[in-house]
Amino acid sequence: MTVSSQINKSGPYDGNGATNVFDYEFRIIDETHIRVIKTSTLGIETVLALGSGFTVSGVGDAGGGYVTVSATPIVGEKITLIRDVPFRQDTDLENQGAYYAETVEAALDLAAMRDQQLQEQIDRAVTIPASSDGAELGGLVGAIVALGGVADSITIVAGVASEVVAVAGVADQVALVPDMVGLAREWAEKPVDATVTGTADGRSALHWAEQARISAADAEALADLIGATIYDFGLLSEDVVGSEDWGTI
Description:
Elements: E1 9-14, E2 21-24, E3 34-39, E4 45-47, E5 54-57, E6 65-69, E7 78-83, H1 101-123, H2 137-148, H3 151-159, H4 161-169, H5 171-189, H6 205-232
Antiparallel strand pairs: 1-7, 2-6, 3-4, 3-7, 5-6
């Protein structure tokens, strides 16, 4: 029998908590030539064991057969079926021995199946363009390893991608923030009589607060002086002298 189909993988099938029988659409010559992978809800893959984990039907059929798994996959779990031919050659042809075409063809079929098995793995692999220099592969691997160390951070950034784009749109303004913060601090804290940067005679809040304190002190002193003067003319009692007592006049 020939290997006329390039299919050597079926699934992944989504679990539903009820189905435990899954079709495979490729021919296998032995029941051990299929690998059943169960993927958990967390994405962790487990290879099930033949017999205890699953059973196989349809061995040798051109269109494949089906696998029955022992533990029914729940919602969120997956089942994947892949041909898994061993990498060895067991056919022994003796000189001047009998020629059985089916024996030779079976060996050739297994070789084609192994080729398909390798191709399936290559299709899932990370490759570089054919025109690339192989020497660049080391740098690529190093970059992948480095990314693996910050995978959690990459996930976090992906979650705020729209915000990152928004910030990129105001990058020029963001660059001005340090200067604006410094200027704001000057307007708040610049010493008394010191000029705020970029102004001719701008003064800080600290400067004007000190001026207000001085003016208030001067006003209080003047009020006390006026009160004492009025007392000297006999218009106030000796107990009513300070400006705080003027309301008793």
